[in-house]
Amino acid sequence: xxxxxxxxLLVILMLVIAGCASNGTMVVLTPDPDGKTGSxxxxxxxxxxxLTAPNQATTVSDSSKLPTTxxxxxxxxxxxxxxxxxxxxxxPPVHYLLYFEKDLTLTSDSxxxxxxxxxxxxxxxxxxISVVGHTDSVGSxxxxxxxxxxxANSVRDKLxxxxxxxxxxxxxxxxxxxxxxKTGDNVNEPRNRRVEVVIR
Length: 200
Fold this sequence. Notes:
Elements: E1 3-5, H1 8-17, E2 25-29, E3 40-44, E4 47-51, E5 56-60, E6 71-72, H2 75-81, H3 83-87, E7 94-102, E8 105-106, H4 108-124, E9 129-133, H5 141-161, E10 169-173, E11 194-199
Parallel strand pairs: 9-10
Antiparallel strand pairs: 1-3, 2-5, 3-4, 5-6, 7-8, 7-11, 9-11
């Protein structure tokens, strides 16, 4: 039996839920964590059916029969039928932006986010944390690469000082190459002086 799908999340769900339906394999198209829904083409020797709307489902009983006509499933039924699958679905990453006054000095608002970041890391027991340093466009490329690396390391050090395992943190730096707000060269833009923290 051949399944053609256009969204990665559905591929994962298919591998997990294959065989769960009592009369074949049921495929349900669910929204991603941001609420967006792609589409999925379910195909076998008898033909294909496309799922295009949130929570549409089809069932494939065997390779010689066309998948059933897509039908809407309510969220409660999906939660009940696929409780085991949904319980192991990974949580979406959590993103934080920490801004800098200058050099390695965090703004007061960004300093205030550190306890929340530590709490989320602890609640998730996260072992996959990205810390990415950035700068605005003031100064040379080399200067900004060094500064962005120092910013990422300073945030990493604050996390480690508060009990996060250093081996769980990956730091990278982009200098002025990936601005949040596009500007010309040598422009002082506070929103580009930042460190991005991603907790998976």
